[in-house]
Structure formats: C-alpha cells, structure tokens
Design a protein that fits this description.
This protein is of the alpha/beta class. Helix content is about 30%, strand content about 20%. It has 21 helices and 33 strands. α1 crosses α12, α16 packs antiparallel against α18 and α18 crosses α19. About 45% of the residues are buried. Pfam families: Nucleotid_trans. This is Beta-arabinofuranosyltransferase RAY1 isoform X1. Keywords: Membrane, Transmembrane, Transmembrane helix.
Length: about 725
C-alpha cells in the first residue's frame, strides 16, 4: 500500500453520555447506512484531513473484488481455519457449512488465500474442490486423535508472509464488510490485533452463487446486501465463536508463551485476547459491531435430512479439562477483572464513518490524515496540530454532534441490554488440583493407534526425560509414524503427555522415586526402570500386537518398521551394542534392549515370558536377562556372528546390522562434525544416543548435534517454517 503521509488520531474527551456497543451501530453495520454523496463531497472539500478514512468502499466494489482503488491497494490476507472431518460418502451438514464459509471467504477478494489445518483425507479432498487459493497445511502439531493444537496454529499463522493473518472458525460465514474493516486497520502505522465475536443463526436459507458475488433467496431471487444484514439482525443469537486477525509486524502478539491448548476445546480464544490486552504491545480492537460474521446452525436444504452427530463428547471431556487447566496455570486470564480493560478499543461505525471508542478512558477517536493515501497513527497529536484538532472537533459539534451522540447512546443501550462482555462471558473454575487423565484403556489405545499390520511403537519414559520424549515424538510425527504409544513411569510425565496430546497410559506397577538426573545406565534406578519395559512389551504382545520397543534417546532417520516386518514370525530383532567395528556383533551381553522388535506370536511370547521372569529375580537391569535367556550365558546359543537361537522356544534372535542400526559407540558417529550427514552416508535408519553417562550429557550431545526436533520453551515441534529459537536446560 502506498504511504506518502502520516495522519493522527483525533480525540473527543469528556462528557459523552455513553461509550459502548450499539443497536444503532449494529443496525448501521448490518443495514450499511449509505452516506449521501453530496454531504461526503462537502466534508472532503472542507476537511481533507478526515476524508481518507471516511471514504468507504460500497458493497458493489467489494463484490467486484478489486485489489486496488483510489484509496490504495488492499493488503494480502491469509485466512486460517481447522475444519472438522466429515463423511465423504453421504450428505453431511458439517461439509455444507464449511463449504459455504470458505466460499464466502474467497469471495471477499482475489487477494485472500485460505489455509486449512488438517490431516484427514476428507479435508484434503474438500480443499481440492475449492480452487488453487485453498491449501491444506498438515505440518503443525496434532493430538493422536487428530485435534490441532491452537498454539501451533497461531505459530504457523505468524510465520505467514501475508500482510494480514486471520484465524476463524471453519463454519463461520463472512460478509464483505470485514474487508473494509481490515483495510482501514492496516493503514495504521502501529501493530494491531483485532477480534470479533460471530452471530449464531438458527436457520439460514440463502445460497451463495456466481463465484460468491451474489446471495439468492430460496425462490432464486437475488437479495441485496442490506436486506441480508437486516435478516441477520432479526435472527441473531449469542455465539461462542471468534475470529481474530492481526497485521504482520515487528511486535509479538503478546508477552510470554502460548500454552498447548487444544483447538475447539474451550478458552483458547478468550485466553489469547486477554493476554494480548494484558501485554499491551499492540493496539487491540473489538470489531464485533462492524464485522458481519455468522454461524448457520441449519442450512435450508439440510434441515430434515441430517442431524449433527453429538456422540463421543463424554469420552473426550478430558480435552476441555486440559484447556481449563492450562488457562489457570498460564498467563493472567484467571486474574482478570470484570471491568473493561483500559486499552481495549471498540471499533464502531456511525453514519458510514468509523470511530474508535475507549470506554474505560471515555474517549472517542477518529482518524484524520493529510490526503487519501495517508498512513494513520495512534500517537498523541502534537501541540502545533491542536488548532486543526479543535477545528475538527468544533465542526463535528456544529454539524452533527446530536446525531453522533444519539448513535453512540443507542450503541451503549444495546450493550447494556445484552449484558455482554467478550472477556467475561465465561465463569471458569480455576481448580488445578484435579488430576488430568484420558478415558482410554491400554486396549482401546492400541486399537486406535496400531497400523494395518497390528504393529505399535512403544516408548517408556519418566519426567526426567520429557524433553527427549517430545523430540522423539516430534521426529516420528515428521516421518508420519503415528502408531506410537507412551508408557508413563510417573504422574508428572503422564499429565504432561496428556496435555501434549500423546496416546499415553500409566503403568500401575512402575517403581517410585525415580531419580531425575541419576537414572542412567549402570545406576540402581536404571535397573528398576528397565524391567518395566520388557513387562509392558509382553503385555502388549499378549493383546495381539507386534511391538517395536524404542528408547526415547533413539533418533530415527527413517521408519524402520517395513524392514523389520520383512523378517517374518518367530524372530526377535535387536540392536547390537558391540562397539568394535570388526568381528562378531552377538558377543556376550551385547544385545541392547533399548531397541528391538517382537512379533505377537506364540514363540515370541513364550520367550519374552522367560526374559521377564529372569529379570524379575535379577539384581541387574533387564538387558543381561535378554542375552542370558535368549543367547545363553556366555553366548552358548550363538549362531554365526549375528544370531542366537533359544533352544526351548526355537526363537531366533537377529542382531541388526550396525550400519543401519548403529549404537552410540559405533564408528564414533556422535563425534563427527556433521552427525546427520555421516549417518545418512552410512545408510542409518536410526542412531542410538547411548554409550554416554548422565542425562545432561546425553541431552547436550543430541541437541548440539542438530538431531533435535522440539522446542521446550514453546512446547512446539520444530518445523521448516518455525521462526522461534528454542532453549533447553542441560
């Protein structure tokens, strides 16, 4: 947008009778009261300083979707939404609402692009029917149930190159006045954040046709924009849906971090608005009165053919409890007062003109600039400009102060009538002592996450390894490996995993008093913890699932499961801990129980029962029990240089090729200047971060090597678009 001048905010202080949101204003917003051209011409001629902001695009200009006009060029806008998956083989109200919403967004302007967050095939197919301006973004964080994380959505939106980013409910329809509102906000030379609450319309029978240029009634006749807005006013109800937009500027949206809220599970919108206001870094506008947006509960042709499916809510209440838990722990949301924040500015429109009302300060701001291509500022007016300001104020007083005040009074009356406050519409119980838990048993989790071969990847972790667990999880997500499950050794890592959306279960027999920094190889803590792993693996095998046991300090370059499945039944495939580059790799006590694959067959189950029984009576860790049971003490059951055969069950143990499955001492890979390149050149599928003593040293080595995929400070998986530098405490 061309910028050749600066403007100022004019302000009128003092005894305005009321300063709230208005029925007159709502009516002006929705009925779009036209400004007489003759009056406008007189204003522009007499006071050029106010002309640029008061000159608005009419509905016809919006429908023509012009990228530029005499008032400048429209900024580029990207709208982000997270659609709900839907049934592709039958009539579906969810799809119908989402299609109407997205088409209304695209109709705003050719400069509007749409990004849909999702992984489900129905969303990908849906986007393919809407044209090249609609894309699907799956490279964000999701829970194991497919729910997107709100903090990941916001982070991805902030990485946008568009001038303006917007996050909106996927079933909320937008009308053209949002474009004018955003266009004027974008002129300000200060970073800003805008939010608006949408309407609920119980039944919406109009259709959007002609590439979004026209709305039709049920009888096929056209309906004017003003009449459509009048209909919405008559049918409106309270809604809990938000839209939020901001310019791509230099300032962050808020101070601090955004917790890992689950999108659509309550409080995340209110929390973010509150934190943006509390941080006071950006101008914050409540644009509810000047943005026409609504959620159609029922569409005309769907009323009797489809009823929304409401099942499964009770089973997923933990998602809402998790969001409440986070809202109580982070930020200042639970400390907020019921009074209007002193820096909240309500954006309103009277007689076709925009005004900014600060109710707490009892101040009305109006934009003024030197010409039609001005950049507008919210800085205080300098002393030498006071004469112009006073003249503008007197002119406003003499010409239409009465009408103006009447409009604002009507606004306030409607506000009081509705008793509505955006930030106090929730009464939240901030009880954080209630333990969080998911409602799924181990059996049900296995049914949900196992792949088509009935195979799962198992990790066992305690709270001391939470960052390494998440880096491991992020890496598997990047590789599209979603059939993993986490066994929590303590309550802390269990609750953390629930909030991170992981398929987690807690072992009721796990040892207590697990040391935070002293539970590495060779310690008594390590010996107790490792015995949990073989016992859980046996439990899962007995439930009919193959198990790839992987410690969280194993870095995956690629998914090894296809290779491991090629070995067939009655075989256990394990990493070798041998560090010598030549010679046998199945020497005594060289079987590493931190990475192995076991099939759910009778032979393997019988052999694993022997291992678990032996480990339970041993004073050592489980690792010696694996070798002594399967390969015999001293290696009497060895076959060649890379196998063993357990004689009782006839189970064959294959020690995996170390070029593909290297341990932490093999070929000094961890000491290479570029660990990733060295491993890829070798053909590694994984690299174990073992053969190092201590949690801190292990963590430091992995982070500094670049084989790290998690930002603990933001609780986000690192992505190609990720701008934030992460920090971790070694």
């Amino acid at each position: 947008m061309a910028v050749v001048g600066k403007g100022r905010i004019g302000m009128t202080n003092g005894s305005l009778p009321r300063y709230s949101t208005s029925s007159c204003l709502r009516r002006n917003k929705l009925l779009g009261m036209p400004v007489l051209l003759a009056s406008f011409g007189w204003i522009c001629g007499f006071f050029l300083i106010t002309a640029s902001f008061y000159s608005l695009l009419d509905q016809k200009q919006h429908q023509q979707k012009l990228l530029c006009d005499n008032d400048g060029c429209f900024p580029s806008i990207t709208i982000y939404a997270a659609p709900r998956p839907f049934s592709a083989d039958k009539l579906d109200l969810v799809r119908a609402r989402q299609e109407l919403a997205v088409r209304s967004w695209l109709a705003l302007s050719p400069g509007v692009d749409v990004v849909l967050f999702g992984q489900h095939p129905s969303i990908i197919a849906f986007a393919g029917t809407l044209g090249s301006r609609v894309t699907v973004e799956s490279d964000i964080d999701f829970t194991f149930l497919g729910t997107p994380f709100f903090h990941s959505m916001v982070a991805r939106s902030q990485a946008s190159r568009s001038d303006i980013s917007m996050i909106i409910d996927s079933e909320t329809v937008l009308l053209a006045d949002i474009l004018t509102t955003l266009h004027h906000a974008y002129k300000l030379n200060h970073d800003w954040f805008l939010f608006s609450k949408s309407l609920d319309i119980s039944h919406f029978s109009f259709q959007l046709v002609d590439n979004g240029k026209q709305w039709l009634r049920k009888d096929g006749k056209k309906i004017k924009f003003e009449k459509l807005q009048e209909y919405l006013v008559q049918k409106q109800q309270q809604s809990e849906r938000f839209l939020m937009a901001w310019n791509t500027g230099d300032l962050p949206l808020h101070a601090g971090i955004l917790p890992p809220f689950l999108y659509g599970k309550g409080l995340h919108n209110e929390w973010l608005v509150n934190e943006v206001l509390s941080s006071d870094l950006r101008l914050v506008f409540d644009a509810t009165e000047v943005v026409s947006s609504f959620y159609p509960e029922m569409l005309g042709q769907w009323s009797h053919k489809y009823l929304p499916h409401a099942g499964g809510v009770a089973e997923r209440n933990w998602e809402y409890r998790g969001n409440h838990h986070l809202a109580a722990l982070y930020g200042t949301f639970f400390l907020r007062q019921n009074n209007t924040p002193s820096n909240l500015i309500k954006l309103v429109k009277c007689f076709g003109q925009y005004y900014f009302i600060n109710q707490a300060k009892k101040t009305v701001y109006f934009l003024q600039g030197p010409n039609r291509h001005a950049s507008y500022s919210l800085e205080p007016v300098s002393s030498r400009e006071q004469e112009t300001l006073q003249l503008s104020t007197r002119f406003l007083h003499f010409w239409k102060e009465k009408k103006w005040k009447t409009c604002l009074e009507d606004i306030n009356s409607l506000d009081k009538e509705r008793k509505y406050s955006l930030l106090t519409s929730y009464k939240v119980s901030f009880e954080v002592s209630v333990p969080l838990s998911i409602t799924f048993s181990l059996e049900s989790l296995l049914q949900m996450i196992a792949d088509e071969d009935k195979s799962v990847v198992l990790a066992v972790a305690g709270d001391s390894y939470r960052d390494m667990l998440m880096s491991w999880v992020c890496r598997l997500r990047l590789l599209a490996v979603h059939n993993f499950i986490v066994c929590a050794l303590d309550s802390e890592i269990y609750h953390f995993s629930v909030l991170q959306g992981l398929p987690v279960f807690k072992d009721p027999l796990a040892p207590s008093n697990i040391s935070f920094n002293n539970c590495h190889f060779g310690t008594e803590c390590f010996q107790r913890v490792t015995k949990v792993k073989s016992r859980i693996v046996l439990q899962i095998l007995k439930l009919g699932y193959n198990v790839l046991m992987s410690d969280v300090d194993v870095y995956w370059f690629d998914n090894p499961l296809p290779f491991l499945l090629s070995f067939g039944p009655a075989a256990l495939l394990a990493q070798s801990d041998e560090y010598n580059e030549t010679g046998p790799i199945n020497l005594p006590r060289r079987l590493n129980s931190g990475f192995y694959f076991a099939r759910s067959d009778l032979t393997t189950i019988a052999a694993m029962e022997m291992v678990v029984r032996h480990a339970s009576s041993s004073v050592l860790s489980e690792q010696p029990s694996f070798y002594d049971v399967l390969c015999g003490e001293g290696g009497v059951n060895r076959v060649g240089d890379d196998q063993c055969r357990e004689p009782t069950t006839n189970l064959t143990v294959f020690f995996l090729d170390r070029n593909f499955f290297p341990n932490g001492a093999y070929k000094g890979l961890w000491e290479k200047p570029d660990v990733r390149s060295a491993c890829m050149k070798l053909g590694c599928l994984i690299l174990h971060n073992n053969w190092i003593s201590g949690r801190k040293k292990k963590l430091e080595r992995q982070v500094l090597s670049g084989l790290w995929d998690y930002d603990p400070s933001s609780r986000l998986c690192l992505r190609s678009w990720h701008r934030t530098k992460f920090m971790t405490n070694f």
